[in-house]
Design a protein that fits this description.
Elements (H helix, E strand, L loop, with lengths): L3 H6 L2 H10 L4 H19 L6 H23 L5 H16 L14 E4 L26 H15 L3 E4 L8 E2 L2 E2 H7 L4 E6 L6 H10 L2 E7 L3 H8 L3 H14 L5 E4 L6 H4 L2 H10 L4 E4 L17 H16 L4 E4 L21 E2 L4 E3 L6 E2 L1 E2 H6 L4 H5 L2 H15 L14 H4 L1 H10 L3 E2 L2 H8 L1 H25 L9
Parallel strand pairs: 1-2, 1-10, 2-5, 5-6, 6-7, 7-8, 8-9
Antiparallel strand pairs: 3-4, 10-11, 11-13, 12-14
Helix pairs in contact: 2-3, 2-5, 3-4, 8-10, 13-20
Length: 476
């Protein structure tokens, strides 16, 4: 029996806590949480977003709740993790009681790559990682970044990438030591999974504020082809270690023209979510940046549109959180880079500050900013960032629902390369590697990027208008 006070007046956080602690009531409470979120997102819709966009966002949020529910039911979530999820992720990230559905005034998160070192070599790595990878961030600098983010932006979510994050160490301390120091922060870590031993998983389960996303390219054949022989089996061992110690985890996939059909298949999704116990999946379509960029690995517009259909099927029908960095741009209200409210920015192992991991043009360096007496807010005023945010705003982020443009093509570097190129050149944004510099000058690269985007735009706009765009108001 569910108490009437819980049903009528509880916050979503209180509802979810009650649901966790009372398994027999979980199904009923899921229905209550779902209705409450639907009312806030779709019915009230205080930010005035397109209604069908809000309906899809509701489906994504419920898929995430279902993912954690499946993991808890199977005993894959430790008590420490449960408490951190309630106190940090649910309260401050997913359902902020001060601003439950809107983006807020500041970035929601930071992406930090503390090291460029990696113990494997993947074809077309976006980060251009290698076994050397440069000096890496100091523990002191990474600690200050996380502290300022929380104090200045009230942000409690840090995404850690690389390189391989579990290789990062400074003065005898590593990523788990940083997580222990920041117990009110939740860290999602993109990792190749090969270093998640039983001891590492045990400590993550005790800390309760880390969720790793392990990289897969498909099944064993696809994964080992790109990441090296034996990597797939090491990932399966990591999955087992994480389940044993109650650490919720996800998978991260990079669809290319070679493997997109596999990683979006029901068979692969069932393997990840049902057989292995993943809670979520992040999908990053191959981008021709980083080491040895190859335009032939990019998805065709037809591939990308079919992936959109499959992604929405997985979220709506199978109730699994499979989020595609581009195709799911609908639910984030377009591009989230360059320090947009509710968005993100990126700091790499050299301290270079970029709009996101897929835009390799630096606006400043965090070491220089701190030496000048600045802080994270200093970064937001960079001219390159302002130009990107102006593009985001005009495209739909600050527009009324009826004027939102096609959020199925939400990315300035991928879907409006000429604008991004001019913005980088005119604001003197600094390429962070040779390939990024070449992309600004290479006329053939420019032509192919523009043509690919235009062709996808012509195909996707029909889907946008039919399935997501806000219909114009009827004339009286």
């Amino acid at each position: 029996m569910i108490p009437r006070t819980i049903l009528e007046s509880a916050s979503i956080k209180e509802l979810y806590r009650f649901m966790i602690e009372n398994r027999l009531s979980r199904k009923a409470l899921f229905s209550i949480v779902g209705r409450r979120l639907y009312r806030e997102l779709v019915v009230e819709n205080s930010d005035g977003r397109p209604r069908r966009v809000q309906e899809l966002k509701h489906a994504y949020m419920m898929a995430l709740f279902h993912g954690f529910d499946r993991a808890m039911t199977r005993g894959y979530v430790s008590k420490s993790v449960t408490e951190r999820l309630l106190e940090t992720v649910l309260e401050n990230v997913i359902v902020n009681e001060k601003n439950p559905v809107g983006p807020g005034e500041h970035p929601l998160l930071l992406v930090v790559s503390p090291t460029g070192r990696c113990n494997i070599a993947c074809e077309g790595c976006y980060a251009a990682s290698d076994t050397d990878g440069g000096p890496g961030l100091s523990f002191e600098i990474f600690d200050r970044i996380v502290t300022e983010k929380r104090e200045l932006w009230d942000s409690h979510l840090t995404i850690v990438s690389g390189g391989e994050p579990f290789l990062w160490r400074d003065a005898g301390r590593g990523l788990l030591d940083l997580a222990e120091r920041h117990s009110t922060e939740f860290f999602m870590v993109y990792t190749n999974g090969t270093l998640i031993t039983d001891d590492v998983a045990r400590r993550m389960g005790e800390l309760g504020n880390i969720s790793p996303a392990l990289s897969l390219e498909g099944f064993e054949e696809e994964t080992d082809e790109r990441r090296g022989p034996g990597v797939f089996k090491k990932i399966l061992e990591a999955f087992e270690n994480l389940r044993r110690h109650g650490v919720p985890f996800g998978v991260s996939v990079t669809p290319t023209r070679k493997n997109w059909d596999v990683v979006t298949s029901d068979r692969f999704i069932d393997f990840c979510f049902d057989a292995q116990g993943a809670v979520y999946a992040w999908c990053f379509q191959y981008m021709p940046i980083g080491s040895r960029p190859d335009l032939d690995l990019m998805l065709t517009p037809e591939n990308r549109l079919e992936m959109l259909r499959r992604t929405n099927h997985l979220v709506r029908d199978k109730k699994v959180l499979f989020a595609d960095f581009w195709n799911s741009g609908i639910v984030s209200y377009g591009c989230i880079s360059a320090g947009r409210p509710g968005g993100q920015l990126y700091i790499d192992w050299n301290g270079d500050v970029m709009p996101c991991v897929f835009v390799p043009y630096a606006v400043d360096n965090i070491h220089s900013v701190f030496e000048r007496g600045g802080n994270l807010n200093t970064l937001l005023d960079a001219p390159f960032f302002r130009r990107i945010r102006a593009w985001q705003d005009a495209y739909g982020f600050t527009q009324p629902a009826v004027k939102v443009q096609n959020w199925l093509r939400p990315c300035p570097i991928r879907d409006d390369f000429e604008y991004l190129r001019k913005a980088a050149l005119e604001t003197n944004a600094r390429p962070t590697n040779r390939a990024a510099a070449d992309a600004l000058r290479d006329t053939d690269f420019r032509r192919q990027m523009v043509e690919n985007a235009e062709r996808y735009g012509c195909m996707s706009v029909r889907v946008w208008e039919r399935e997501f765009a806000e219909p114009p108001a009827e004339k009286p």
